[in-house]
Amino acid sequence: xxxxxxxxxxxxxxxxxxxxxxxxxxxxxxxxxxxxxxxxxxxxxxxxxxxxxxxxxxxxxxxxxxxxxxxxxxxxxxxxxxxxxxxxxxxxxxxxxxxxxxxxxxxxxxxxxxxxxxxxxxxxxxxxxxxxxxxxxxxxxxxxxxxxxxxxxxxxxxxxxxxxxxxxxxxxxxxxxxxxxxxxxxxxxxxxxxxxxxxxxxxxxxxxxxxxxxxxxxxxxxxx
Amino acid sequence: xxxxxxxxxxxxxxxxxxxxxxxxxxxxxxxxxxxxxxxxxxxxxxxxxxxxxxxxxxxxxxxxxxxxxxxxxxxxxxxxxxxxxxxxxxxxxxxxxxxxxxxxxxxxxxxxxxxxxxxxxxxxxxxxxxxxxxxxxxxxxxxxxxxxxxxxxxxxxxxxxxxxxxxxxxxxxxxxxxxxxxxxxxxxx
Lengths: 224, 189
Hints:
The complex is a heterodimer. By secondary structure, chain A is mostly helical. Chain A has helices at 3-13, 25-37, 67-84, 86-97, 112-128, 142-160, 168-185, 193-205, 208-221. The radius of gyration of chain A is 24 Å and the shape is elongated. Chain B is built from ten helices and no strands. Chain B has helices spanning 17-25, 29-51, 54-71, 81-99, 101-109, 112-115, 124-136, 140-151, 156-163, 167-184. The longest helix of chain B has 23 residues, at 29-51. The relative contact order of chain B is 0.11. The interface between A and B is large, with 45 and 55 residues.
């Protein structure tokens, strides 16, 4: 088989190799339109899809389902925390900031601490599923992955302004997580290797994941 | 083999692509539908040629456009819209293929036995089927390059963008793929 003959064959393959039947344009558009234009805001993408018609879709991340609730709980919790801790917080804050690096975390207080605990667990899960290679499998970690990161970024910022950030370790952790999640939230559908490398470096330089796991485990051990 | 860059231009007249894109971002369904009509057939053909399954191809096209419309606001025009869209298509198809076992089974059914079966030199249709089987038998990266370059007519630069590889890597893959195809079809003079 010489080159010319092979080229001729490959040219012919345009009309013969895996030629699809006519695309069902209208049927395909129906689902596209429903899911893109009629879908609710991203936060409710995680709701069960039991009644949805059409071809099966990849399942939503179940671990992200309570995110909307967490955000709402945080808003309420921050409000309660500010109302109940106003005079004390201003006077006692210096000694609290001086807490030893390995001192136990303050006992969790519902509902803010419960929301914080859930947020930490979800952030651990999201960062653990971060794609590692540009040509690899979970890349496009799809738009939902990025949407999850954005939701957690918003929650991080809420927490940074909450009593949960009075502990210096937590405040530092939130700040580092804000940086990392902001990068993840900017990822494109098919991120380049260097984008992922930057995120990995940011996490490694600050030991984000080990610190996050330690704090998450501390909250979990406290019953949250 | 040179490839026609014109293959990536909008296939029909009508409103400029950027107009449709901006209107789609603003939530204009008719503009989005027009954008879809302009590109869906080719996206469907590409993903079908990658996956070889009609039902899966239809699912993938829907996934591709749902993702594309969801990310349209991030499209800055650094590359042609078609390249951007087809990058999503190729990535989506590849990711999904790795998860779908029926595709793997399909590839296994087209194994070495078919590729090296005794040829019938007279019948051109047999040569075609042998070529198709040989393409199917290539490793994924090589097969994809042949399909995108030789069958679909993309340039190496566009393939590089779509697959996240260097242009030179695409050329090297095509060279390797053609060498393997020549070996597989060596019985045909």
